[in-house]
């Protein structure tokens, strides 16, 4: 009969695959210890980094297995919280945010809500924001710019200017 040798790489891949596949069947107490605490999460992170240093495929497999454990732990926590809250009823419905709070002490006074000063904002200029007119500078034309002396009047003179300044040679 042939003896089957299981290599370390194959064994890590199989364990990671089993953890990934059957993470929903792992007991909650074990998940809480392994990934539910800061120390456990730090150890899992170090484990992934160490395995990534040895082999990238093994590191990816271990990362996916540990991610499945984290997700399963979070899913169970969310299920626990939703069961505690009841039948999916929101804790604070949005409609009831405008209603004043109940008195905790007899004779308690609640101040009125402050409303916004302006109710609607438009994109057009208003009287308070100023005018949209442009005032002239008092000149007949604002188009009185002169070209700088460093810019030649004709583009063909650029090579001559560059040669005169010693920046180009032909």
Give the rounded overall mean pLDDT.
80
**Share of helix among residues?**
40-55%
Could you state the order of secondary-structure elements as H and E? HHHHH
Rg, nearest Å: 37 Å
Determine the oligomeric state from the structure. Answer: single chain
**Apparent shape:** flat
Main sheet overview: none
Class inferred from helices and paired strands: mainly alpha
Q: How far apart, in Å, are the first and last alpha carbons?
A: 88 Å
The total beta strand count reads: 0
Low-confidence stretches: none
Our estimate of the beta-strand percent is under 5%
Number of helices: 5
Key descriptive features of the protein:
mainly alpha; 170 residues
Q: Mind explaining what this structure looks like?
A:
This protein is mainly α and 170 residues long. It has a domain at 8-85. It is built from five helices and no strands. The termini are far apart.
What is this structure's SSE topology?
Layout: H1 8-21, H2 28-34, H3 38-54, H4 56-85, H5 158-164
Short structural description:
The protein is mostly helical and 170 residues long.
């Amino acid at each position: 009969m042939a003896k089957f040798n299981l290599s370390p790489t194959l064994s890590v891949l199989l364990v990671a695959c089993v953890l990934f596949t059957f993470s929903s069947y792992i007991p909650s107490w074990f998940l809480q210890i392994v990934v539910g605490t800061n120390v456990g999460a730090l150890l899992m992170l170090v484990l992934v980094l160490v395995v990534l240093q040895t082999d990238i495929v093994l590191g990816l497999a271990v990362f996916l297995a540990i991610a499945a454990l984290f997700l399963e732990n979070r899913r169970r926590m969310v299920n626990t919280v939703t069961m505690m809250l009841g039948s999916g009823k929101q804790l604070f419905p949005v409609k009831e945010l405008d209603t004043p709070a109940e008195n905790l002490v007899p004779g308690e006074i609640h101040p009125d809500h402050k409303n916004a000063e302006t109710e609607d904002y438009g994109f057009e200029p208003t009287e308070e924001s100023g005018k949209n007119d442009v005032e002239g500078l008092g000149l007949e034309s604002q188009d009185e710019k002169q070209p700088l002396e460093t810019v030649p009047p004709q583009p063909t003179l650029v090579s001559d200017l560059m040669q005169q300044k010693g920046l180009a040679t032909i």
